[in-house]
Amino acid sequence: PYYVDMNQNLFLQASLHSSDQNLTVFVDTCVASPNSNDFGTLVYELTKSGCASDPTYALFPSPRSDVARFGFNAFSFVNRFPSVFLQCKLVVCRYHDYSSRCYQGCVSRFKRNADS
């Protein structure tokens, strides 16, 4: 466990370990939950489809393409739960493949009207 105070800045890093030097990593979706075994019932979205859902969420420059750095302010679930667990989904792409998901950034998906 990592103990922090409320609203303290948290900085995280995800590293890709591969012998292939031509890969890059992208943080697609991160959700928090008070339960380490349930990321579906009570969750808080930090980012979804590469778009920040939390106003304190931010991506940071990385020294290498196989490392993603991001952060947000610490929070709790209405003081009823002592812990917050984080689950992030990352995407791995070919480095410099600008048509890949890794280079698209925030992807807003709009629902179409089903009428006519």
TrEMBL record:
<feature type="domain" description="ZP">
    <location>
        <begin position="1"/>
        <end position="109"/>
    </location>
</feature>
<dbReference type="Pfam" id="PF00100">
    <property type="entry name" value="Zona_pellucida"/>
</dbReference>
<keyword id="KW-0732">Signal</keyword>
<dbReference type="InterPro" id="IPR001507">
    <property type="entry name" value="ZP_dom"/>
</dbReference>
<dbReference type="InterPro" id="IPR042235">
    <property type="entry name" value="ZP-C_dom"/>
</dbReference>
<protein>
    <submittedName>
        <fullName>DMBT1 protein</fullName>
    </submittedName>
</protein>
<dbReference type="InterPro" id="IPR055355">
    <property type="entry name" value="ZP-C"/>
</dbReference>
<keyword id="KW-1015">Disulfide bond</keyword>
